[in-house]
Amino acid sequence: MALRRDEERVRGDLVWQRQAKCKGALAEAFYPPVRVESKDERDYREARAKKICASCPVAEQCLAHALANRETHGIWGGLNESERRAMSLEGRTDRNS
Fold first, then answer.
1. Which three-class secondary structure string do you get for the chain?
2. Which of 3, 17, 23, 70 registers the highest number of CB atoms within 10 A of its CB?
3. Cα–Cα separations (whole angstroms), residue 63 to 10, 12, 35, 81, 86
4. pTM for the whole thing?
5. Distance between CA atoms of 81 and 97, rounded to whole angstroms?
6. What spatial distance separates the first Cα and last Cα of the chain, rounded to whole Å?
7. Confidence grade of residue 49 (pLDDT, cut at 50, 70, 90)
8. Could you tell me if 87 and 67 are in contact, meaning their C-beta atoms sit under 8 angstroms apart?
């Protein structure tokens, strides 16, 4: 019974993902390709992803999820891996401060 409540809580906590603008075909911009990409390719891909995040209604929840779960790959809430790492080191969770 406790397991079922935990599963329901986790599902409820991730409801925001249904409203995310990064779903579907756009998702490829949020993670690096399997092959090695150049710095210019990475910068372009990340800029595309961040532009999508900028108008996403759940960007704050996305970023909070990434920070809480220490996501190590991809663009989450408009920030890449190194930007999130720096934010975590500073102890900040608000991407606008």
1. CHHHHHHHHHHHHCHHHHHCCCCHHHHHHHCCCCCCCCHHHHHHHHHHHHHHHHCCCCHHHHHHHHHHCCCCCCCECCECHHHHHHHHHHCCCCCCC
2. 17
3. 17, 17, 26, 11, 13
4. 0.77
5. 18
6. 42
7. very high
8. yes
